[in-house]
Amino acid sequence: MALKIKEIIVVEGKDDTVAVQRAVEADTIETNGSAINEETIERIKLAKETRGVIILTDPDFPGEKIRKTIAEHVPGCKHAFLPKQLALSKKGKGVGVEYASVEAIRQALEHVYEEVTEWKEEITLDDLIAAGLIGGALAKARRQRLGQLLKIGYTNGKQLHKRLQMFRISKAAFHDALQQVLQEEKGND
Protein backbone atom coordinates (compact mmCIF):
# COMPACT_ATOMS: atom_id res chain seq x y z
CA MET A 1 0.00 0.00 0.00
CA ALA A 2 1.33 3.41 -0.97
CA LEU A 3 2.24 5.93 1.69
CA LYS A 4 -0.34 8.74 1.65
CA ILE A 5 0.99 12.28 2.07
CA LYS A 6 -1.43 14.88 3.49
CA GLU A 7 0.59 17.89 2.33
CA ILE A 8 0.87 19.03 -1.26
CA ILE A 9 4.36 18.41 -2.64
CA VAL A 10 5.96 21.17 -4.71
CA VAL A 11 8.14 19.78 -7.52
CA GLU A 12 9.74 21.29 -10.59
CA GLY A 13 7.98 19.49 -13.44
CA LYS A 14 5.75 16.72 -14.80
CA ASP A 15 8.46 14.03 -14.65
CA ASP A 16 8.98 14.83 -10.96
CA THR A 17 5.23 14.47 -10.33
CA VAL A 18 5.28 11.05 -12.03
CA ALA A 19 8.27 9.96 -9.91
CA VAL A 20 6.66 11.20 -6.65
CA GLN A 21 3.36 9.50 -7.47
CA ARG A 22 5.18 6.22 -8.13
CA ALA A 23 6.59 6.44 -4.60
CA VAL A 24 3.66 7.84 -2.59
CA GLU A 25 0.05 8.85 -2.91
CA ALA A 26 0.22 12.65 -3.09
CA ASP A 27 -0.89 15.76 -4.92
CA THR A 28 1.73 18.03 -6.44
CA ILE A 29 2.17 21.57 -7.67
CA GLU A 30 4.70 21.98 -10.48
CA THR A 31 6.79 25.16 -10.64
CA ASN A 32 7.78 24.52 -14.28
CA GLY A 33 11.27 25.92 -13.86
CA SER A 34 13.02 28.41 -11.64
CA ALA A 35 11.16 31.52 -12.88
CA ILE A 36 8.16 30.90 -10.62
CA ASN A 37 5.24 33.08 -11.59
CA GLU A 38 2.85 34.87 -9.22
CA GLU A 39 0.01 32.45 -9.98
CA THR A 40 2.13 29.47 -8.86
CA ILE A 41 3.18 31.31 -5.67
CA GLU A 42 -0.51 32.00 -4.93
CA ARG A 43 -1.38 28.29 -5.44
CA ILE A 44 1.43 27.31 -3.06
CA LYS A 45 0.19 29.85 -0.46
CA LEU A 46 -3.32 28.41 -0.67
CA ALA A 47 -1.97 24.86 -0.44
CA LYS A 48 0.05 25.77 2.65
CA GLU A 49 -3.02 27.26 4.36
CA THR A 50 -5.30 24.34 3.52
CA ARG A 51 -3.11 21.21 3.64
CA GLY A 52 0.51 22.18 4.18
CA VAL A 53 3.33 22.12 1.65
CA ILE A 54 6.46 20.02 1.28
CA ILE A 55 9.08 21.40 -1.10
CA LEU A 56 10.96 18.63 -2.95
CA THR A 57 13.15 20.19 -5.63
CA ASP A 58 16.14 18.82 -7.53
CA PRO A 59 19.42 18.73 -5.58
CA ASP A 60 21.12 21.24 -7.86
CA PHE A 61 21.54 25.01 -8.20
CA PRO A 62 18.19 25.70 -9.96
CA GLY A 63 16.40 23.45 -7.43
CA GLU A 64 17.91 25.39 -4.54
CA LYS A 65 16.94 28.67 -6.21
CA ILE A 66 13.31 27.49 -6.48
CA ARG A 67 13.35 26.31 -2.84
CA LYS A 68 14.64 29.74 -1.70
CA THR A 69 12.11 31.66 -3.81
CA ILE A 70 9.19 29.65 -2.39
CA ALA A 71 10.49 29.90 1.20
CA GLU A 72 10.80 33.67 0.76
CA HIS A 73 7.23 34.13 -0.54
CA VAL A 74 5.56 31.35 1.47
CA PRO A 75 7.29 31.11 4.87
CA GLY A 76 6.74 28.05 7.06
CA CYS A 77 6.82 25.37 4.35
CA LYS A 78 8.23 21.93 5.04
CA HIS A 79 11.30 20.75 3.15
CA ALA A 80 12.37 17.32 1.91
CA PHE A 81 15.84 16.78 0.47
CA LEU A 82 17.14 14.15 -1.92
CA PRO A 83 20.87 13.44 -1.73
CA LYS A 84 22.45 14.26 -5.10
CA GLN A 85 23.89 10.76 -5.58
CA LEU A 86 20.39 9.27 -5.26
CA ALA A 87 18.98 11.62 -7.91
CA LEU A 88 21.42 11.05 -10.76
CA SER A 89 20.28 9.99 -14.21
CA LYS A 90 21.25 6.42 -15.12
CA LYS A 91 22.76 7.84 -18.30
CA GLY A 92 25.01 10.07 -16.20
CA LYS A 93 23.61 13.29 -17.66
CA GLY A 94 21.35 15.19 -15.31
CA VAL A 95 20.22 15.22 -11.73
CA GLY A 96 16.66 15.45 -10.48
CA VAL A 97 13.72 14.08 -8.54
CA GLU A 98 12.58 12.24 -11.69
CA TYR A 99 15.70 10.02 -11.58
CA ALA A 100 15.36 9.05 -7.91
CA SER A 101 14.18 5.60 -6.90
CA VAL A 102 10.85 5.01 -5.16
CA GLU A 103 12.82 4.21 -1.99
CA ALA A 104 14.91 7.42 -2.17
CA ILE A 105 11.78 9.58 -2.59
CA ARG A 106 10.04 7.83 0.32
CA GLN A 107 13.14 8.33 2.49
CA ALA A 108 13.25 12.04 1.64
CA LEU A 109 9.55 12.43 2.49
CA GLU A 110 9.96 10.54 5.78
CA HIS A 111 12.61 13.06 6.90
CA VAL A 112 10.83 16.33 6.34
CA TYR A 113 11.99 19.51 8.05
CA GLU A 114 9.69 22.29 9.09
CA GLU A 115 10.92 25.79 8.56
CA VAL A 116 10.83 28.05 11.60
CA THR A 117 11.66 31.69 11.83
CA GLU A 118 12.09 32.18 15.58
CA TRP A 119 14.81 29.92 16.95
CA LYS A 120 17.67 30.57 19.28
CA GLU A 121 20.96 29.96 17.51
CA GLU A 122 22.55 26.77 18.84
CA ILE A 123 25.28 26.34 16.24
CA THR A 124 27.33 29.43 15.44
CA LEU A 125 29.38 30.30 12.37
CA ASP A 126 32.44 29.91 14.62
CA ASP A 127 31.33 26.32 15.36
CA LEU A 128 31.18 25.64 11.62
CA ILE A 129 34.63 27.14 11.04
CA ALA A 130 36.09 25.19 14.00
CA ALA A 131 34.56 21.99 12.59
CA GLY A 132 36.29 22.57 9.27
CA LEU A 133 32.97 23.06 7.46
CA ILE A 134 33.87 26.55 6.23
CA GLY A 135 37.29 27.17 4.71
CA GLY A 136 39.90 24.48 4.34
CA ALA A 137 40.52 21.69 1.86
CA LEU A 138 37.92 19.28 3.25
CA ALA A 139 35.13 21.81 3.94
CA LYS A 140 33.02 21.08 0.82
CA ALA A 141 33.21 17.29 1.22
CA ARG A 142 32.40 17.59 4.93
CA ARG A 143 29.38 19.84 4.27
CA GLN A 144 28.19 17.44 1.60
CA ARG A 145 28.36 14.42 3.94
CA LEU A 146 26.92 16.38 6.90
CA GLY A 147 23.98 17.45 4.71
CA GLN A 148 23.34 13.80 3.84
CA LEU A 149 23.50 12.63 7.45
CA LEU A 150 21.23 15.40 8.73
CA LYS A 151 19.01 15.08 5.62
CA ILE A 152 19.12 18.82 4.91
CA GLY A 153 20.79 18.68 1.48
CA TYR A 154 24.09 20.15 0.29
CA THR A 155 24.85 23.80 1.02
CA ASN A 156 27.69 26.26 0.92
CA GLY A 157 29.05 27.44 4.29
CA LYS A 158 26.74 30.40 4.77
CA GLN A 159 23.65 28.41 3.70
CA LEU A 160 24.61 25.59 6.07
CA HIS A 161 24.50 27.98 9.04
CA LYS A 162 21.10 29.29 7.97
CA ARG A 163 19.68 25.81 7.26
CA LEU A 164 20.84 24.41 10.60
CA GLN A 165 18.87 27.19 12.29
CA MET A 166 15.90 27.06 9.93
CA PHE A 167 15.35 23.35 10.61
CA ARG A 168 16.17 23.55 14.33
CA ILE A 169 19.05 21.13 14.16
CA SER A 170 20.17 20.68 17.75
CA LYS A 171 23.78 21.02 18.80
CA ALA A 172 23.69 17.34 19.81
CA ALA A 173 22.41 16.15 16.41
CA PHE A 174 24.96 18.38 14.67
CA HIS A 175 27.76 17.06 16.87
CA ASP A 176 26.77 13.40 16.29
CA ALA A 177 26.66 13.87 12.52
CA LEU A 178 29.97 15.75 12.55
CA GLN A 179 31.61 12.95 14.56
CA GLN A 180 30.43 10.43 11.96
CA VAL A 181 31.85 12.58 9.13
CA LEU A 182 35.22 12.80 10.90
CA GLN A 183 35.23 9.03 11.65
CA GLU A 184 34.52 8.24 7.99
CA GLU A 185 37.35 10.59 6.97
CA LYS A 186 39.79 8.70 9.22
CA GLY A 187 38.61 5.40 7.73
CA ASN A 188 39.32 6.66 4.20
CA ASP A 189 42.96 7.58 4.92
TrEMBL record:
Recorded catalytic activity of this chain's protein: Endonucleolytic cleavage of RNA, removing 21 and 42 nucleotides, respectively, from the 5'- and 3'-termini of a 5S-rRNA precursor
Domain Toprim intervals: 6-96
A Pfam family that the UniProt record links to this protein: Toprim
UniProt EC number: 3.1.26.8
Keyword annotations: Cytoplasm, Endonuclease, Hydrolase, Magnesium, Metal-binding, Nuclease, Ribosome biogenesis, RNA-binding, rRNA processing, rRNA-binding
CDD domains: TOPRIM_RNase_M5_like
Enzyme kind, highest EC tier: hydrolase
InterPro entries the record matches: RNase_M5, RNase_M5_C, TOPRIM_dom, TOPRIM_RNase_M5-like
GO molecular function, one term: metal ion binding
Annotated Gene Ontology cellular component terms: cytoplasm
Intracellular or extracellular location(s): Cytoplasm
SMART domains from the UniProt entry: TOPRIM (SM00493)
Biological processes annotated in GO: rRNA processing
Top-level taxon: Bacteria
Matches recorded under PROSITE patterns: TOPRIM
Role of this protein: Required for correct processing of both the 5' and 3' ends of 5S rRNA precursor. Cleaves both sides of a double-stranded region yielding mature 5S rRNA in one step.
Family: Belongs to the ribonuclease M5 family.
Name this protein carries in UniProt: Ribonuclease M5
Species of origin: Anoxybacteroides tepidamans
Lineage: Bacteria, Bacillati, Bacillota, Bacilli, Bacillales
